[in-house]
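#onboarding

Welcome to the new folks! Below is a worked example of what a typical request in this channel looks like: someone posts a single protein sequence, and someone else replies with the predicted structure as tokens. Don't worry about understanding the tokens yet, we'll cover that in week two.

Example request:
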Amino acid sequence: MPRNLKEEVVFTAIMAGLMVLVMTAYNVAMAQGFSNGLIMAILSGYPLGLVVAIILDLLVVGPIAKGLAFKYIINDYMRKRTVLIGITISVLMVLGMVTCMSLFGITVEGKLAGGHVLATYGHTWIFNLIVALPLQLLIVGPIARGVLGKMQQATAKTEAAAKTEED
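Example response:
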């Protein structure tokens, strides 16, 4: 878990950056198939999706997911096993982000008009969840936590060296 603003920014950048890239590629491929314009469509949709995802992560979904997790789900047993806390928050984050970003996706694609909005949203939501949850738990989450762990180790070494110099 990030312990300060710098760690939170790096962790969120890695997490959101990778998740949005893969999910953008997935959704574009699902919508238009593997065509000549696939790479350009992914690259053109990525920046706006990334900005929206980071804002949602930091200001809406992240605080709600963490609040729900620590208030209603995480118990004393889980507190002794930090990996369970991370998995719990990751699952809640995926549920929240898929909910919001699926709406964002169908809005950007202009699919909010018509009589099948709920069906379109439900289809988009479930198909995004099917990809996003394993992507987060098995690939992106471990990468982001690995980088965060290395960052925290480097900070601890620097602080220890500084303390040794003071003594």
